[in-house]
Fold these 2 entries.
Entry 1:
Amino acid sequence: MTKRTGKEEEDMQIIIDGHKVPINPRVSKDLLITLKSIARSLHWGILYDTNRETVYINTKSASVPVPPHERPASSPAEAESNRLAGKTICIDPGHGGSDLGAIGPTGTIEKDNTLAIALLLCDKLEKNGATVIMTRETDRDVSMPDAETEVELGARVDIANGADADIFISIHNDSFTNPTAAGTTTFHYGHPESIRLANCIQKSLVEGLGTRDRGVRFASFFVIRYTKMPAVLVEVAFISNPEEEVVLASIDGRYKAAESIFQGIVKYFKV
Ligand SMILES: [Zn+2]
């Protein structure tokens, strides 16, 4: 038996596509560099979480993997404010499970990006007192795999309406055949409060990400049409645009997107 001292003896976990590799090598810079270079050449996504000494690898796409969501039993130390107390906010990460959404030029996948942004946004909202309802917290279909579109989207609407949420925000990545198409758009279904929410989030996202302002627009998307509360669908940026794909699939870009949507929500509630 050896006593464990010092950081150099700490074990590192490696998680590939959600499965833990059954060996725990020691934390080593060389191993990390090797894993990163393998990931780069095979177009795998890789994320090293220093707090958990864990390497997450995603062999399905080049998107940075989304670590499993841990909801800590309210840790007051991390609380930032109470200004969203009493607000229930439904966040809908677009696509998931059998529905990949759009795919970027280097193989990053919309469903990964939307979930990552949504989880960061959820965390930020909860730290500021909000109650957050997520239509999904993992890579899954909300109804069932390969369900008809209206069944899948209906399941998302039911969650928001059932929770009697104050606002509903569906997060997506835009995509177009022409790779130069770029920018941020926020859609609403015409209700004045939805338009006001859309304006707050759109302005904040364009400022935060520095993207082209494609404006706030009317659209008859299922999830914003049938939800009973002010509802918007955000196309954060274009996954089909090589530069914006990097923003959507990187930790930094996802964080900025989540932070910007959060600021938009705060402005909407005037808190
Ligand atoms: Zn989408």
Entry 2:
Amino acid sequence: MSSQPHTVLSWFVRRTRLPLLSLRCLDCRSDSATTGDGRFRVNANGKLLDVWLLVRCVSCDRTSKLTVHERAPVGSLDPAELHGYHVNDPRLVASRLLDPLLARHNRFTLDWTGAWRLHTPPAVPDCAWPVHVAVVFEDPVPLRPDRLIAHGLGLSRGEVLRRVKCDSALRRPTSTGFTFTVMAGG
Ligand SMILES: [Zn+2]
């Protein structure tokens, strides 16, 4: 009897938009902010630069500045990066917002609710069990493997526990890729 998996699939976790920020507003006490269209502010003071990413409260529009660079020597920044700050390059907005260091320094967390999708290949009609799946995170969305697998396979979480062998802790949120194997049901 062969234990070779016959079906190998890839799943992709991809953002559909930028996440919101869980960040307490100083005016209205709302705890949700957005980067909106994505704007930086650059301030030069002699040879030193400050760069901020601007975010606004989703309920009262109050603008807050998140520190990206603080008193950085001009020469220490890559010219292409500096240009990106000046033109509000959307890719730079995304990469700064998703950088865990920015979140740590500015004391916010990302709210990914409704901001991502799981892309799975169309169902294989004659799929041979067991099925081997590799989950690839194209964006760092922290997700619990048991919930993601249940969602992707259309199974209850109890069934996931019975039928899935995973190389990652099923209940611990992760945003790094993992693989799992699904055994035949019944
Ligand atoms: Zn507010």
